[in-house]
Model the fold of this input.
Amino acid sequence: MEQKRKEDLVNSDDIFKYQLLSRLQSDCEYYLGNGNRNKKQLWAEDEREQIEVMKLLYNSFWDENKPEWLSMTDIENYEKQMVVDITLEERYTEAMRMTGYDRIETPTDSMATVSFVFRTAPERRIDADGWEALGEELEGMSPILESDRAKYEDLIHPSGRIAYYTLNLEGSGMDSDLKPVTYSNIKDALSAYLMSDADGKQLGYIIHGELQCMSHFDSVDMKNHITSLSDPALYNEELAVNEKQIIRKSYSSMKTILDKDNVYCALKAGVDYIENVCIGEVGRENTEWGAWSGRVANTHRPQDYLDINIMGYERPHLVIYTLSAVHANEIVQEMQYTVHTNPERLVESIKQGTKNISGEIDEFLHMAVEKLDTDIIYPMQFYSPYTNRELTEHYRKLENAGYDPLPVNQEQEVQVVTPDKIKDFVKKYYDHYDGLVCTEKISEVLAVSIQKMIDAKQMDNTKESIENVLCKESTLHFIVSRMPNVSPVPAEVKNDVVSYFEQSSGLANYKPVEICRVSNDPEDSHLYAVIGYNSQMNQYACWTSWNQDRHSLNYGHYNLMDEQTAVDTIKERFNDITDEVQKYGINNTLFKLVSSESERSKPDVEKIEADIPVKLNGRRGR
Done:
């Protein structure tokens, strides 16, 4: 439930709250009785949320106005009866039972850790390497009885078990009593986390009462320390497959925002540092006269930085802040802020003046984060005459990268690119990028985006301006995420397929003769198709799903008269993300496991191990 709705309920009049609380109690009684534990009969349609609202309403009354017909103990008893959780093992075992499969002891010679057989056909067996793998199997299965559908969905897709939290770590120690503040979604939790001005704070999610930290902020280095998505500590072993997807999505949205917040924090720390140096020297010298400067630059791209300059004038008693956001060593945004000083109270007047413009500076810094478009994977570094990293060090880094020590801010001769030439310009621009495959679809998307920015006056149609967009890290990441995967089939995959055929009794008459990818989507890099030949019947078969992660073979097509029919069958089911299937389809990855018709009775293992690659796109570095 959204925080706003909770607040509306709490702020309602007592009569309405009495009526709603009574309704919620009646729902609980029906749910536990004739309702057959169907959560759709509940007002909140979720057991945890129903109890949460009941507690919220009950606690909103003053002690003398709390209902006599219901106590907090009653609500907690409802919670114990209704919010009964089971282990992932119990959850998936019950779901498998509904599909007709019973659990058996896993054979000692199997690589799997969990095994099930079909109740009426023991030869049909499902082996999985752990409960997470079994959960993925269940995604494609269905219960035998349609009446079990709702319960089956609840088992494999549990809801309401994940909550998010923020934790104030200030003053934490042996005697501290830290209590997390919980939220129903990552958006509210992230907003509260960012709004908190605590020197130490933590953001994460809760399941089964356990706190899983996703990020914590340390005031010493003014940085959000984000837990790696690959860190096992981020995942609770009791999470279902859909819950892990929720966590990944929450993590992705959180990381995008906190990475930018780290850049903002670095810029803000730099401005605050120079400001404090200015105030300190003004206090010692008792005059506004002076100049103080510094830079906050990306360690990977020194040409992306914030230039900070504060100038003090004794006449007419002014301190002027000049902040410049510099991208590719060109000023892309600049602002000046003026503080009027009082000669009789210099330090106090400067402090008050900077406090008055702090909101404007914050707004500028947030815009600067977007304008810089700096590579947020790398940290920001502060340079100034007052630290061990002086400005001259940044000047040298700029010169080493081919830039002048001072940023450019002048009109230059431009070369215009007309709208009908933007797509061709994009394609040609990336020809020299080794390892990048810029397909027609990618070029079209980039060209449309650039034209929209030109139309919105966010950029001009010059060659230089377009190149600045195309070389951005965000643009390159966009291309990499949508590049087709047409890399050769790895030797490990070929050997595993051959071994699988040799060890599977159901495939005794088949020999694998060809293997290829079934998708050019990078996320499907573990999926392949296999063509087999039955020498006894002189027929072919193809399987359009060899899962390298699970070592499983599925979706067979049998009694095919020739090899080309098998290839065509795979082509019909090929997942293409480019609309250029002739260029990036299975022909790029098709690998013959045997080299001639006469050899198909025995796989050529030596050729497989030799792993002779097929010549692909010369620019690819994958």
User: Anything to note?
Assistant: The CA atoms of residues 117 and 125 lie 4 Å apart.
